Amino acid sequence: MIERYLEQVSTYAGDIDGLINLIAWFVGVWFLVAEFVFFYLIFKFRHREGHKGEYITGEEKHQKRFITIPHFLVLVCDIFIIIGAVRVWVDVKQTLPPADATVRIIGQQWAWSFVHPGPDGELDTADDIKTVESLNTEVGKVYHFQLESRDVLHDFSVPVFRLKQDAIPGRIISGWWKATKTGEWDIQCAEICGIGHGVMRARIKVQSAAEHASWMHENSPVASIASAN
Amino acid sequence: MAETIDVGTHAGDDHGHDHHHEETFWSKYVFSTDHKMIGMQYMFTGMFMALIGGFFAYAFRMQLAFPGMDVPFWGIVTPAEYNALITNHGAIMIFWVAMPVLIAAFGNFLIPLMIGCDDMVFPKLNRLSYQIFLLSAVVLLASFVVENGGFGGAWTSYPPLSAKHEYSLTPLGSSLWITAVALEFVAFLIGGINFVTTAMNSRAPGMKLYDIPMVVWMIVVASILFMASVGPLIAGAIMLFMDQNLGTHFFDPNAGGDPILWQHLFWFFGHPEVYVVLLPATGITAEVMCVFARKKLFAYRTVLYTTFGTGVLSFTVWAHHQFIAGIDPRMAHVFTITTLLISIPIAEMMFVYIATLYGGDIRLKTPMLWALAFIAEFLIGGVTGIFLGASGADIYFHDTYFVLAHFHYTFFPIAIIGVYAGVTFWYPKMFGKMMNDTLGKIHFWGTIIPFNCIFIPLFVLGAAGQHRRIHDFTQYPELAQYQDVRVFATVSLVIMLLFQFVFIYNFFMSLRKGKDAGPNPWNSTTLEWTTESPPGHGNWKELPTVYRGPYEYQVPGRDKDFWPQNEPN
C-alpha cells in the first residue's frame, strides 16, 4: 500500500509496509462484509405497504450467534495483527543491531542539525562534521542515532525509511537504520514545534562508500587542516 | 442543601417553588433551572461554536490549497495564525461542540424526559454548569483577540511548547486557552454528577435498570468515564498554567520537570474522551434506528455490557498515542494489546446495530438517514484505527494525515452525524414542530458526499507520508506533487460548509412554519413522547408509570406496531 507512494529505502521499510498490508487485508475484508450486509439489510427490509416487521429480541442463543461468531473472528484477527505488530516493533524500535557508525541529531526551533563522526568513526572527537539541514550517510551501513532536542518536542521523520521518533528535551533517544539505496530524500519534523514547524525540513543523503569517504574527507575539520598543512 | 434532601422526590424545593412564580424573560431563558432550557442553552452555544470551528477549518484548508493567497473573509493566513486556527478548530469541535451538544444538550433534555421525572436532581448545579461552560467559551474566544493572537500549540498542547511563552510566542493566548479548557472541564464535571444521580435515583415507578433507554445509559456511562478521567487533566491544566505564568517547572526538563508527564495526563483523559462523546452518539443512533426500523434493539443487554466493557477498556489504551514519544519501547506491546482489544466491544456494538435492521420495516426519514450514515461512516473510522493501534504500523502513520483522516471518520460521525440524527429526531419534541423532510434530505446528502470527498483523499496523503500541522506542503519536494488532492479536499469542504446553511434555514424556518408535531409524531415507545411537545415546566401533568422496556415494536398480537413504555397491559 505505502510502497505505491513512497520508495522503501531502509531494511525495515518492507517489514512495516508488510504489516500495514496485513492489517489492510484483515480490516478491508471486515469492512466490506459489514458494509455489504448493512446496505443489503436496508434494501431488503425497506418499508413497503402492507409489510410488517418481525419481533426479534436478539436475546436468545440462536439469535446471538449472529453477533458472537463475528465477534470471535474479530478477536482471532486481532491476535494475528498483535503478533505482526509486536514482531515489527521489536525489530525496529526495541533491538538495535550493532552499529557501524553513530550520528547525533539535534532538533531546535526550527532547524535540524547533525553531528557526523569524522574519519576516525567516533563521535565527540576533533574530526566530527557538523551540518545543518543536511544529513550525510553511507548506504548499507547500520547507523545508530542519538536524538536530542534543545527546546521543545520535535519529531525526526524520514518517510522513505519508515522511521519516526520524537525528540524530547532532557533525553537522548537512540534508534537505528540501514539504508538500502543511494539518493536524497525528505526529513520532516512530525511534531508541532511552534510557528516555524512548517519550514523545519532537512534532506538525508545516502551515498555510496566512495562518495561518502570523499565527502567526509572534504568536510572533516581535521582532514581539512591536515590537507592545508 | 435543599437540593440534596430532595433526591428521591423528583423535585428540589427551589424547583417546586418555580411553579408558583410568573416567569420573566431572564428567569425563563437566561437563569432557568429547567433541564430542557439548559439543554437548549448548551445546544445553541454548541452550534454557535460549531460555526466558528467550521469557519476556522475553511480558513486553514484554503491556505493549504492556495498557499500564501488571500483567503476570502480572512486574508493572508500567516504560519502563526495557521497554528492557532488548527489548534482551536480541534479544541472547539471536541470541547465546545461535541461535548456540549452530545452530552450536555441531549443529556439535559433527554434524561428526565426519558426516565419519567420532572427535572434533574440538582437543578441549580445544572445551571451553574452551563454558566461555567459559557464563561469558558467566552475566555476561549477572548484568547484570539489578545496581543500576539491565539494559542497555536495544537489541541494536545504538549509542553514545553505550551508551557513557555518564549517557545509559543503567544503569552496571553496560551494562558487564556488553558484557562478556558480547565473551566470547560469543571463545567462538565458538575454536569455529569447530575446526569448520573438523576438517572439512578429519579426513574419513574416501574422503570427497572433494563428498561432505561440506551441513550440514557450511554450518557450515564459517558459521564462516569468523563468524571473518572478528567481530574488528572484539570490538575495538569493548572500545572501548565503555573509553568506558563508562575515560574514553576512541572514540564521543564531543565529544572527537574518532565514533558512526557503532560502526555500521560492528557491522554489518560484524551482517549476515554473519545468514548465520552462516542457513546451518546451511539445511543442516539440506537433510539433513531429502533423507531425508524420499527424494531426492538437487537440484544439490549449485550449492547449495555459492551458499553460498560468499552468504558473500562478506554482507560487502558492511552499510551498508544505515545508509541514514538521516547518512553520505554516495551510498553508498546501492552498498549497494542489493549488498544486492539477495544475493537471487540465496539465491533460487537456495530454488529448489533446492523442486526437490528434485520426483519425491520425501515423508513428512510431524515433522522434515520443520519443514524444509518453514522454506522456506515463510523465503520471507516473504526477499521482505520487498527492501523494506529498496532505499534509497528504506527511508526509510519503517527502524526500523518492518515491519523487526521481516521479521527475525522470517528469524530465526524460522532459530533456531526450523531448530532444531526439527534436534533432532527427530537426537534418535534423540543419545539413542537416538524422539520421539513425534503430540506433535511438535501442537507444530508450535501453533507455526506462532500465529507467523504474531503477525507478519503486525506488517507491517501497520509499514506504518501504527509505530516500534520504544516502550513504549506508545496515546500516539500516529495509532497508538492499532491497539490491537486489538497485543492479537491478544500473545495469539498467549502461545498459541505455551504450545505450547512440549508440546515440552519430548515431549523429556523420550521420553527415558524413547520407542521404541528403533536406529542408522538414518530409513533415511538419511549417516555418523552408521552407528554406534550414541547413539554411544559415539570414535563408531565402526572408523572408516568413504566410497564415494559423501551423498544417494543411489532409485538405479535397487537394492532399498533408500537407499545409505549407507559401503556398498561
Could you describe the 3D structure shown?
The complex is a heterodimer of chains A (229) and B (569). With 229 residues, chain A is α+β, with helices and mostly antiparallel strands. Chain A contains four helices and ten strands. Chain A has helices spanning 13-44, 61-94, 209-219, 221-228, and strands at 101-108, 111-116, 129-132, 134-138, 142-149, 154-158, 163-167, 173-178, 183-189, 202-207. In chain A, strand 1 (101-108) and strand 2 (111-116) form a beta hairpin. In chain A, helix 1 runs antiparallel to helix 2 (61-94). The radius of gyration of chain A is 26 Å and the shape is elongated. Chain B is built from 18 helices and no strands. Chain B has helices at residues 2-5, 13-18, 25-30, 35-65, 79-115, 123-142, 165-168, 171-201, 214-245, 259-293, 300-313, 331-341, 343-357, 366-389, 391-397, 401-431, 437-463, 483-513. The model of chain B is unreliable at 1-19 (pLDDT under 50). The chains are: A alpha+beta (229), B mainly alpha (569). Chains A and B meet through helix 1, helix 2, strand 7 and strand 9 of A and helix 5, helix 10, helix 11, helix 12 and helix 13 of B.
Order of H and E elements of chain B: HHHHHHHHHHHHHHHHHH
Global Rg of chain B: 23 Å
Overall, the morphology of chain A is elongated
The count of strands of chain A amounts to 10
Structural class of chain A: alpha+beta
Total number of helical segments of chain A? Answer: 4
Q: How would you state the average pLDDT of chain A, rounded?
A: 93
Structure summary:
By secondary structure, chain A is an alpha+beta fold. Helix content of chain A is 37%, strand content 26%. The relative contact order of chain A is 0.15.
What labels describe this entry?
heterodimer; A: 229 residues; alpha+beta; five-stranded mixed beta sheet; 4 helices; B: 569 residues; mainly alpha; globular; disordered N terminus
